[in-house]
User: What shape does this take?
Amino acid sequence: MLKVKDLNVYYGVIHAVKGISFHVPEGKIVTLIGSNGAGKSSTLKAISGLVKPKGSIVFLGNDIARKPAHRITNSGISLVPEGRRVFVNLTIQENLRMGGFNRKVSELNELYEQMYKLFPILKERASQKAGTLSGGEQQMLAIARALMSEPSLLMLDEPSLGLAPKIVAEVFDILKSLNKKGVTILLVEQNAAQALKLADYAYVLENGVITLEDEAKALLNNEQVRKTYLGES
Ligand SMILES: Nc1ncnc2c1ncn2[C@@H]1O[C@H](COP(=O)(O)OP(=O)(O)O)[C@@H](O)[C@H]1O
Ligand SMILES: [Mg+2]
Assistant: This one.
């Protein structure tokens, strides 16, 4: 579904992503794990059109590298950004409206209802400001907002960041059920243990380079991964 080949991201003289290649097959959950500064966000931003990369990004047969962000959203890719970035002064429903910027007005009510069915907590509070939500609820809202464009590929940048383990488990359960409904997922995480349990396939990113890749379950048992990312000695 998504084939990234020889992707490079530069910020001036900083070479953040150094020629990585990976793919995301339709219907799967693929994770990109790595520590702070590894180049995870830069990779997702490049795919989303938020930074201009070098290399090729082929989505459903079309090269989308360097296309404008709204065209990439329209083609079926949606990003849940790092730190959630909900609009705290807008209501929950207004936040959803922003995610549905490319939808027809006549489709919106049906989409809101779909989101409220997936996330009942958002329905109860639809007319409240997003800033009144807890961190976990804001993460749910950020996911719902991304789903408003009905993406076939949902990308998430560290959705577990700053959330209590119980809430992380809830968020990851939602990702699992979305995937069962047919949404392909590219998940970027520092929380390697959770990500590897959820994903089908995984890549390890270090200093802008992919150093390891395998079935996620196999990486959970990989000695190097256990030492570096799962905090084992
Ligand atoms: N806007 C930017 N300007 C300059 N350097 C940046 C910018 N964004 C990220 N970087 C650098 O690029 C590298 C990769 O960052 P990032 O993709 O955010 O990593 P990660 O998401 O894995 O923590 C880091 O060295 C970071 O300092
Ligand atoms: Mg990041």
Observations:
- The longest strand covers residues 14-24.
